[in-house]
Structure formats: C-alpha cells, structure tokens
Amino acid sequence: MLGRLAIVPDLSGALWLPEERTLVVADLHLEKGSAYAARGIFLPPYDSATTLATLTAAILRHAPARVIALGDSFHDRGAEERISSDDLRSLHLLQKGRDWLWVIGNHDPAISRAMGGETAASLEIAGVVLRHEPDAAETGFEIAGHLHPAAKIRMRGRALRRRSFALSGRRCILPAMGAYAGGLNLRDAAFRPLFREGLTAHMLGDGRLFRIDRQLLLAD
Length: 220
Description:
Blueprint: E1 8-9, E2 15-17, E3 22-25, H1 32-38, H2 47-62, E4 66-70, H3 79-82, H4 85-95, E5 99-103, E6 118-120, E7 123-125, E8 128-130, E9 141-144, E10 149-155, E11 158-167, E12 171-173, E13 184-185, E14 200-204, E15 209-213
Helix pairs in contact: 2-4
C-alpha cells in the first residue's frame, strides 16, 4: 500500500493498481536502438517490438481499464518518425478500448496525438502523485520512474543483478520496461535522498519477484 492506494508489483516491471484497474509502466524508451544506430552504434533493431511484447503480456494478464506510462516512453523526439508501422499498429491495438495516458519525461517532453492517448505532466490517484522523475521534496506519496532501479545481490556464491522496484512506505520507483533501458544500482547516491525512511527492493527474477532488504543489496 501507498497511503490509501493498493499497489501490486508485476514481474514485467509494471505496477498494477487493482482498485483503480490501472496498469502503470515506466521508461519504455521506444526506438532507443534506432537512435543509437543513427549515431553509428548498431544494435539489433528489435527493442521496440520486444518492449511492446512485454507490455502486451502485462496488459493481457491484468486487463486494465487504464494504462499510465510514466515518461521516457519514447527515447527521443525523433522516435515517432522512426517507429515502424508494425510497432505503431501494435501500440494502437494496446490502446483500443482503454484509457491511455502518457506522462511526459525528459526524453519525450512532447508526444503527438499520432501516438494515441492523452498526455499530462503528472497526475494524482487516491492521494498518490504519479510523475516521471521522483521528487525528494515530496512529503506525500509518490510513484515515479526515471532512475531505472536495479538490485544487485549475492546468491549461491555469485553476484546477480536485475531490474527492481524500489519501495518504501511512501514511494515506489518502477524499473525501466524498455528492452535497452539498462538500470541504476540501488546503492547509487541518487537513491539516498529518496529513501531516508527505508528501502525494500522487489527484484525481477526468473518467474517471480524477490523481496530484498536494503542491507542485502550490493554496490556495483
């Protein structure tokens, strides 16, 4: 729970709000691969399709009435021109029959109507603010993305690093869903001012989420 809002972390990296029938995702970074290719860094050009497949599976699992994407859904301003017709069609099919809200981020400060849905800088649900970048000055409850949290632990004698939710009694930061988005270690200084009251990681594992206490988290 965050305040009065029930939250359920999903293995996909999405956050399910069952009482609101709302699925929240963060940092899809669609068309990151094509952005790198334009700079001469060639990666397999399938990241958007892979990310949308992950999102599709989460939507099929929960059948949300509303989807909220918490910013950096598109990797840059040119992503809308580079996205393939097949991937755009997949995106529009996901939006069919449900509300869709793009919260703007630092990578995508403007999203055209051609991408479907509506846009907003932030919103509030049941007293919880949803925004792209977490705000250390927030004294209420908050759900955000932006930092791409990842947990590193030692398990069976070897180090394991995976994307992770970062949770406290008043804040939840979602892992990036984007296939090429990467992750920032939860031991990084960027998380310290956000989790002074405590931190629990919910790490994405093989087939399940693992709840990890802060003292078990390793630095890179």
